[in-house]
Amino acid sequence: MSTFCFSVQSDAEPGVLPRVLEVFALHGFVPDQCHATRCGDSGDELVVDLQMRGLDHAAAALLAKRLGRVVAVSTVLFSEKWQQCAAA
User: Fold this and answer.
1) Cβ neighbours of residue 42 closer than 8 Å, sequence gap 6 or more
2) Whole-prediction pTM value?
3) Residue 81 pLDDT more than 90?
């Protein structure tokens, strides 16, 4: 099991953030980290960055696919976060 990072870009609409979090909640997950930023020239875009531990690649891919189906979401990126091992 690994930590996966998700980046979700959408229109800055009031209901987007709870709908993004709902994708995790429906699967019984609570993200370890969540950060939302309004951006764009007129603040009309929203970028939500999330991290979730304890997922395998298949579960992360499923979450990313479902995040992409959220209304107003335009882009979803996800990647596995590699952690360095301490020297023995």
Assistant:
1) none
2) 0.89
3) no
- Non-local (6+) Cβ contacts of 66 within 8 A are 23
Burial 44-83 (b: 16+ CB within 10 A, else e): eebbbebebeebeeeebeebbebbeebeebeebebeeeee
Q: Is there a contact between 22 and 66 (Cβ–Cβ < 8 Å)?
A: no
Strand partners, 82: none
Ranges of each domain in the chain: 2-77
Three-state DSSP at 28 gives coil
CA distance 57 to 38: 29
| CATH T-level topology, domain 2-77 | Alpha-Beta Plaits (3.30.70)
The DSSP bridge partners found for residue 77 are: 7
How large is the average pLDDT for residues 17-30? 97
- Cα–Cα distance for residue pair 78/3, rounded to 1 Å: 10
